[in-house]
Amino acid sequence: MPKVTIDGIEVDAPAGSTILQAAELAGIEIPRFCYHERLSIAGNCRMCLVEVEKAPPKPIASCGYPIAEGMVVHTNSKMVRNARRGVMEFLLINHPLDCPICDQGGECDLQDQALGYGMDHSRYAENKRAVPDKNLGPLVKTVMNRCIHCTRCIRFITEVAGVPDLGATNRGEHMEVGTYVEKALGSELSGNIIDLCPVGALTSKPYAFVARPWELSKTDSIDALDAVGANIRIDARGNEVLRILPRINDDVNEEWLGDKSRFSLDGLKRRRLDRPWVRQNGKLREASWAEAFDAIAAKLKSLPGDRIGAVAGDLCDAESMMALKDLLASFGSQNFDCRQDGAKIDTSRRDFYLFNTTIAGIEEADAILIVGSNPRREAPVLNARIRKVWSANATPVAVIGADTNLTYPVTDLGPAPTALSSLFDGSHAFARILEDAKRPMIIIGQGALARPDGTSILAAAWRLAAKFGALTPDWHGFNVLHTAAARVGALDLGFLPGPEGKAFESLVGGGVDFLWLLGADEFDTMAIPANTFVVYQGHHGDAGAHRADVILPGAAYTEKSGTYVNTEGRVQRGFSALYPPGDAREDWRILRAFSDVAGKRLPYDTIEALRARLEKVNPIFATLSHLPRFGCSDQSGPVGDPNVLSYKPLVSPMQSYYQTDPISRASPTMAACVAAHTQPALAAE
Amino acid sequence: MDVVTNVGERGEPFEQPASFAFDAESEAELAKIIAKYPVGRQASAVIPALYVVQRQMKRQTGSAWVPVKGMDAVAAKLGMAPIRVYEVCTFYFMFNTKPVGKYHLQVCTTTPCWLRGSDEVTEACRKETGIQGWGETSADGMFTMTEVECLGACVNAPILQVDDDFYEDMDAQKVQDLLAALRRGERPKPGSMAGRQASAPAGGPTTLTTLRFAPEK
Hints:
The complex is a heterodimer.
Chain A: E1 3-6, E2 9-12, H1 19-25, E3 49-52, E4 60-61, E5 72-74, H2 78-93, H3 109-117, E6 140-142, H4 152-160, E7 167-169, E8 176-178, H5 192-196, E9 202-204, E10 217-222, E11 231-237, E12 240-246, H6 259-263, E13 277-280, E14 283-286, H7 289-301, E15 308-312, H8 318-329, E16 335-337, E17 367-371, H9 375-378, H10 380-393, E18 397-400, E19 411-412, H11 419-424, H12 430-436, E20 440-445, H13 446-449, H14 454-467, E21 471-472, E22 475-476, E23 478-481, H15 487-493, H16 504-511, E24 514-518, E25 533-538, H17 543-547, E26 550-553, E27 562-565, E28 571-574, H18 587-597, H19 607-617, H20 662-665, H21 668-678, H22 680-683
Parallel strand pairs in A: 1-5, 15-16, 15-24, 17-18, 17-20, 18-19, 20-23, 24-25, 25-26
Antiparallel strand pairs in A: 1-2, 3-4, 3-5, 6-9, 7-8, 10-11, 11-12, 13-14, 13-26, 21-22, 27-28
Helix pairs in contact in A: 8-18, 8-19
Chain B: H1 24-34, H2 46-61, H3 68-78, H4 82-91, E1 103-108, H5 111-115, H6 118-129, E2 136-137, E3 143-148, E4 160-162, E5 165-168, H7 172-183, E6 191-192
């Protein structure tokens, strides 16, 4: 490792690092606009100039200059200070002085660095240039006069998102960043260019003129709208979520966040359930908590345990599911299920339903097979990882299931699961690639499991993984990609039919007389027979609430402290950023309160006690955030006959990215996205 | 119709054609150009390919320019993202991203030409065509006049480039004659309008005049 001296501090930096990276190791800040550690180096803002001894006697852009043994760098000499001042003066020549009305104000790199490194006044008296604003769709607002041409947005959209829509057209004084031909950005990760923009040129359209950063209270949380479990920060003012931003977690989401997770927050204010409702004479009427509880208790007490059941939804925290399971189990019920899509998941072993390679582990894979999943829609941040490994190593990727537009080139193995057999017997050419791969990876989507031959596909995929060396003591290449944030947590705590429990079809098809839906909206609730008494506990007036006989208003993921287990099996905890609206309460509290009324008091009074119960049920809940990598020690596969595969095409469960759950369905912003991507002409109005 | 969001500072609206397809002549040219680059590096052909589009537009419509659909056709042909072609096409001044007149008058106004009278050339063009500002097209659609940077022919300054041809050693009278000829449909021979050979001195050799060669045997 070359040793360099930066401002008198000696530092060993890995060979090939740039001066800027070495300076970061030494703890020295170098101002920058265009450099971003997750994007390629552009070197066009010139803000990171430093002085290097025995190098050409001119300021050197440290972001693109590799270190060499014995290099002596000064980042605060007179020459450097002058150079920075000069660069800053040029950057500000065409930058409008509209900070008071700019949404970036208060969190603007240009503002901060102008204060730190710029001059105290401007010598420029001429006219500033004016650039027409661009329409990039319903999410990203542009004020192109403010653009300083750092090209971060162009590089992100091209390199990370893989949807090259943005570019720099014209040149010199007339250079403009945009799409040239007007169009909405076609990426599910487009919101990230708002975070990347160092100035106020790209800002959030829904958040425009809403708040200043210093007014917001910031709460760390976990995204619940897909199964990746992206780490987020919820910015709220009063009792309103104003924006959601990603937090950096290199193991999960790096620093990216999907558009649905970022922008569906306006759905949190609409169609909310804010008081209990009870159905009387066929019509729902407002009720008090006591009335609602009494109605449920009366029904529940009259029934034997095997006529009682519960379904958990996709957004639930582990605590509420545990409480509900304990509550109904005390009435003798074994009828639980969390698989609203009917996915055939073998829960006998944890690695049959986890993304075992881990998200960060994708970067080590050297061949990837995707079965029945569209990761671009189901988990855009995870898809960016696959793209990352593809762009680094040209990793071969093959897809079984129709959609191949995944932002990287794929080998299309056709839509039918029978392709698994032709890979197994080696009749397809891609079998050779899997055979030669040292660390092959197979990703099974819910589209492959939620169908009658799901168990066969699962077994066939396992058999394939075993054959091609994906299951070794130090590499586990068998992966299930979930779409629901609650799913793995529910499987881990056993929200599943007990030994005599009824299957999901029977649960919602009249097999029980009492059905408790915990935020379950993703199946045809109106098909539940009329004589089943339905309790809906959740936060949105969606499918479940329409069918309910009693509605208990719960909390959305931003309003409760909850534990979620992502598709990798990583246990993560979010904190509540605000209170639920009206009479709504945190879900575990509702269940705890009802257990008193029903005379079956749950043995926990605090969330800590409930979490202790969770850890007792499954010790995995004690491993917060920490996820040990493991290989596969047992090659015996899941139940199922790998030979009976059908020709029925595999279809991703997500046909639209933007509206997939009660929150995003209630969100006008998401509706605008759907309109922009399905009916571009209408959206332009 | 595609809405182009940056039409430059003089952004009068104009119509983009609804479609563009290479004709047989262009396809033949493209095949030759693309064959020059290694497989997988076809994108290197983007600049000559855009010229192919511009020439085809000239053949088909009489106006040498590159419409958005033409850039899209290049992108599809070379396997590039359309925006990468838009970037190249708008970067280079030689590609016209909006329609031009039948003759594209490109006046060099960089210092050597300016010292040698490019103002006079410009003024003569204005007078003959009725064009006022840079980038405008005459009312009859015959001429578009643009200001260009150094054309690299300073020894024969000032230069008036018409489409792809250099007319050198210009002055007001010569511009008048040239434009009149163009209007008649003639195409005067490019090169020095003062009649000198290439960039040799105007009145015959001025150096080495006393040089005596040995008599030929």
